[in-house]
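User: two proteins, same treatment. go.

Assistant:
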Amino acid sequence: MTFKQLQVFLAIADTHSFSKGGETVSLAQSTASQHIRALEDELGARLFDRSASHVTLTEAGRLFYEHAARICGQFGEAITAVRRFQGLEQATLRVGASTIPAACLIPDLLGSFSAAQPGVGLEVIQGDTREVIRLLQDEAIELAVVGGQYDADTICFQEVCAERIVLVALPGQFSEAVVTVRQLQEMPLLLREPGSGTRLAVDGALQKGGLDLRSMRVVAQLGSSEALRRAVLSGAGCAFLSALAVGRELADGTLTAVGIEGIEISRSFYLAWRRGKSLSPAAEVFMEAVRQMKKY
């Protein structure tokens, strides 16, 4: 039994004619008849009752029709699925992103990506780094752009760019542009939650500088860079934030960056994908766009 035989069978059943059914699948009537004869011989059952003016399905033919239609439908769906995977038709690329990539990096590359893949829509799912990696492990997303590395056994990470993390405060909150560790310990401090890439970088840098967070005045842990920014602006304390997240405020003087003696904090952003998983062409184009991002 061949797929062509199923196509011919369905065309004849739908048109009630061997000649019209053959035309539908670009075959002569005689060739269409040969396909049906071979199909009936294989099944050991007549599929059509033929008369001079009309062709109708037998009981066996009606039973077979349901299954043949389902098979041909699934065949078409399979072709569509592969074409979508190849980016040849409308498709959606699901990408996970931690806070800063979602707010700053991905919007910057949307123009080039959309031009390269006009048929592909981008769906960005935001969370902290740990949450996004979990989505990747569950295959809820195909790619991720995150600010830290977790579970490298099942996830591949590729560093794509880096940025500075700065201590920001209201103007005049610190009397000097550079403060000592002791001065920092005396200030109310706002932090991101432990699962974020920013927090991971801050914790590592402070520990290298001999600072223990337990000795500091941590007044709040907040779940986003935007929440931290607003809290600092409200006068709640100082905070470590991505230079990208507060670029406007630093430029207009609404906030000021404060240096810490002996401590500099930077972090990398990473492309992440499941180890051993084949990626769609749309995902490959997106990855290349991310790789072209400059160092911030």
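Protein 2:
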Amino acid sequence: MNTFARKRHKKARQKKFQVLSSAIILLIFISFGVWSFCDQDQEISVLEKRTLAQQPAFSLAALFSGEYTRGYETYYADNFPQRDRLINLSSVLNYLHYFDFGQNTVIVDRRNEGGGESLAPPEEPNAAEPETSLPESIPPNDDELIQTGSILLIGDRAMEAPYTAPSQVTHYAATISRTQQLLPDCRTISLIIPNAAEFYSPEKFHTGSYAQKDMITSAYAQMDDPVFTIDAYTALRKTIDQYIYFRTDHHWTALGAYQAYLAYCASLGFAPVPLEAFQTGVYENFVGSMYGWTSNLPQAKKLLEHPDTVQYYVPIAECTAAYYFSPAMTAPYPIPVVDTELFETSNKYLCFIRGDTPLCQIITNNTTGRKCIVIKESYGNAFVPFLTSHYDEVYVVDPRLFNCTEHPTRFNLPEFVRQQGINDIVYINYAFIPNNESFIRMLDKLLGQ
């Protein structure tokens, strides 16, 4: 065979290979497409601890406005075949990337709520004056501590150690004040919640730059006078000997949320429902996020061996609830306010308002004439059910699920408040959020900024 013939033969083989490769790739895409339409959609992602987008309802108005196509993109991204396995694979790759084989340690610095960048650790804090009016806590010794990035492991408890970013605290306070300025006929209410590290870590992690109480006091002092600021810190500090925070998860318990609820009622003039008046129940064997973020460490075995329990308190008022993916509140997805028959899942914290959803509406049988809207991250989930005793309607918004590239649906808080006749605007966030630039920008977008 001459040189020319060999070249023609080689080109022919290359062309056949390209055609075959293209056909295989096309077949793979078609197969995934057919699979995605035929498999059963999940309602909740246990791995991500949130509610997944559901297939949007079709209408010509939604199609022409672009809402339908944006909603379908979000729905398909949330229901891609084998999504959980791909997420697990990503976690394994991240683990291999951050594992230091020389020192056998792991950098855990997890993504803060809202996706903000990590901040530089503060300087070694100075010792703070001890509290005289509150019960003394007995923090563990430093030699009991294992610190991996921003996560602390002490015995069978793991927790995050937040610290103060003063410029972000100022920004957060200005955003809350801006809400009051835009909606002067409503009450703007702020609850900043300390996390477990403020009470159960060695002294240096709740003094100086780590002192959550000082950060909360600073944030409140920078808010305009009309803003109602709720002292949940003192209420929680008084009950540190009770089960107010999980040990294997970064959230507080419903009992912890109840302490903040008592402070809320005292500030706003509501008569709180006594704890013993609630019907209650318990989910056993809950191992939460803190174990998930440290499971590659041998010390995390203690968390797995000593799981948490999730106690819930059923609302006194009769309630119906649903969540939505749009402020237009079309295509409702009914949910329980407190799920007393939670399906088998590792994330039992989802029993509170079904976890993080874009917009939730709760309608009660109360006749108070009051409505509120709660702007929150996941700490607010366990708090919301207690509000059902004092409002006719409770709306819940997660700012991470609107006004962004991943979730482009527009939500304008002032417009929504006026449309629904809302009286109280409640911001409830835990201690990381006032120091998180990305989350605060999401709050600004809710205000149209």
